[in-house]
What we know:
Number of domains: 2
Number of strands: 3
CATH topology of the largest domain: Four Helix Bundle (Hemerythrin (Met), subunit A)
CATH architecture of the largest domain: Up-down Bundle
Strand order of the largest sheet: 1-3-2
Distance between the termini: 103 Å
Radius of gyration: 25 Å
Structural class: mainly alpha
Largest sheet: 3 strands, antiparallel
Oligomer: single chain
Order of helices and strands: HHHEHHEEHHHHHHH
Helix content: over 70%
CATH class of the largest domain: Mainly Alpha
Amino acid sequence: MGAKDNSVERSLMRRQSARMPFPQKTTARKKTLALRKLLRPLVGDSHRRASVDIHQYLRNSILANTLPANTILSQVEVAECLKVSRTPVREAFRMLQEEGLISAEPNYRCRVLGFDPEELELLYASRIMNEGISAAITVEGMSDAHIEKLSAIFNDMRRDEEQQDLDQWILDHRAFHQMLFSGANPKLQQRMYVDCQRSERYVYNSIQSGLVDIFRRAAVEHRDILQACKKRQATLVASLLTRHLSRAGIDILKALAPQWDPTTLRTAAGFMLSGATHLDDRQDHK
């Protein structure tokens, strides 16, 4: 009787299996269709499209929340949606991972990262220390040509604000900060460049949350930094930059993660401001 029951059970299981769909294929197809609503083929000779163009397109889509947090991206699906090969997509994914916009998942997939208060705090703490020291080194050796270029970038940012062109403001803002650490060690410059780009995700987060006061204040802070650069006041630039970065990070955390206590960020800012004051005192006694 037991053997007969087992035989009937196996028969029923085979019939059910025969009628069952293929969930993996169906799921993958649905995901591709969903992704097509978010991504569009790139214009031009897309099969030869460089990875940098794909990276820029995906980056803009993530920052603008067209690709929201926790969206799963696969090399195959993205390549199919953009009508490109997988090779440049793979390289674009690598660049997005370096910027902290996506994280690696199994099976050549990645996940779009959302707001992470811990990462934001550590990111701004790192920027305060690295950019503050690098700015103090850079400003002392700035030529008149460097000052003119920095002034031009500042004017571009003001124009972007008036025209409410956020995308261009982000690029000009990045260029402004890059000028402030352009005299640092090249390897350190590369690290700061990546950190600067990773911060931009949180700039978009704050704008989407309506934190416009941060940017009104930033315009004044950038002006003060520029004026100190013109006078070659290296320690003052380091102090102003430290306050600028720490206020931005703390304000974004206060608005988007009010329960988070940014102790590390405040400590990093305190150390930098204390160091700048000590350096000023030493120079005054020379």
